[in-house]
Amino acid sequence: MVDLFIKNGLIVTMDKERRIISDGSISIEDGRIVEIGRGIKPGEKPAETIDAKHKIVMPGLICSHTHLYGMLLRGAPLKIEPPTDFSQILTRIWWPMDEAMTREDAYASALVSCMEFIKTGTTLFADTFSGPNAIAGVLDRIAAAVEQSGMRGIIAFEATERRTHAEGARGVRENERFIKKVKKGARVRGMFSIHASFTVSDELLHYVRELASRYKAPITIHTSEGLVDVYHNYERFGKRTIERLSDAGLLGPDVVLAHCVHVNDDELALIKRAGAKVAHNPMSNMLNAVGVAPVVKMLAMGIPVGLGNDGYIFDGFENIRAAFLLHKAMLRDPRVISPTEVLEMATIRGAELYGLESELGSLETGKLADIIIIDPSTAPTPVRPESVIGHLVNTIDGDDVETVIVGGNVVMRERKLLTLDEEEVIRIARRSAERLWQKLGAMGGS
Q1: 187 lies in the same domain as 321
Q2: Most C-beta atoms within 10 A of its C-beta, which of 156, 167, 212, 286?
Q3: In three state form, how does the secondary structure of 141-189 look?
């Protein structure tokens, strides 16, 4: 029996042929798509029907790299000397915040981030948490929030040795513990996360590589986001960042390199040869003034590139638009990165980064039913098969997302969240943020 039937929609499949189906339908059973494009079978009565007439139906967006806890820093009036470069951003903002975070802060930030993700059309994210004073068990608290929200997450603790080697090992062990605990096919999965090559030893790189291969889990690492990464590896090892990671044996098809801003052609060749992938974070890169990743070259070489937010703006459509525009301005060429390419980065390529392309990222028979329905009624021009991709990139915002479905379950219907109490989530997040801001000196005690 069909559990959920979506009819009359303008379906953007993102399948191999990138088909767009007018007045199409999707039948869902047991959380998976069993039929797409055709109507319901004669005599069959679905348990629930959604009429998507005049609506856009597409795969849920995938955020390939985020920091959920970054949500608690939004708007914080930090009393610090303004940073002048990426290294100072880390030492004056992020590392003090990391050290102030508790497990309950991690839960609160995950809860409010999931709420914002769902409301703007993202159904899967890959997150790394950093909190040296809240390592043991923290992934369970993050997972609890994600499970409560009804969306999907790939989560990890960001291992770093910037303070001690022992702390780095503890971070890796937290990832291992969670990966061993999670059941196959769960909505919340684990991975291994390394902060960056300039805060870890080769020994830790080898340790993570061995464990990831043993558990068949992904690895993610911040890579050449700022020049500090490149300079560190030159000074310590006489190599560029990707060269060191390659020589250490870390690179492989299960590795997601976040950022890759300061990489040269030789390093891109190493990434391609290893089958590694890249998570591009254009809005964060602009915010931190680190530069522009050579994504156009990556795409030309066939390196899979997904789209992330790095904990900054959680509306995936804003990130899509930023990626679409940034490289045109950088290269002074309006032809680079087509609307379809940037939409791929936010859907099927995001799934490919984490080896999930056979399950997620497109609307196809047999895949998990992670679907969003968008109301384009405010678009000033016709929304048709030949114009819908252009509208998704240039017109649609997260606020236009009307319905969100994860694994066949409706988690938001007509802009109303069904899994979370929005007022309660905001209350929890604000209470946590107030305590955190006091620790950071952004506000006085009560």
Answers
A1: yes
A2: 156
A3: HHHHHHHHHCCEEEEEEEECCCCCHHHHHHHHHHHHHHHHHCCCCCCEE
Summarised one tens digit per residue, pLDDT across range 251-260 is 999 999 999 9
Q: Cβ neighbours of residue 20 under 8 Å, at least 6 residues apart?
A: 10, 11, 12, 13, 385, 388, 389
**Does the pLDDT value for residue 277 go beyond 50?**
yes
Q: Are residues 50 and 163 in the same domain?
A: no
Is residue 161 located within the same domain as residue 214? yes
Helix (H) or strand (E) segment spanning residue 436: helix 422-439
Question: Which residues lie across from 18 on neighbouring strands?
Answer: none
- H or E element, residue 321: helix 316-331
Q: Model's pTM, two decimal places?
A: 0.97
Give, rounded to a whole angstrom, the gap between the first and last alpha carbons of the chain: 57
What is the longest distance spanned by two Cα atoms in the chain?
72
- The more confidently predicted of residues 441 and 204 is 204
pLDDT at 316 over 80: yes
pLDDT at 446: 44
For the stretch 244-253, pLDDT in tens is 999 999 999 9
Q: Indicate whether 425 belongs to any domain.
A: no
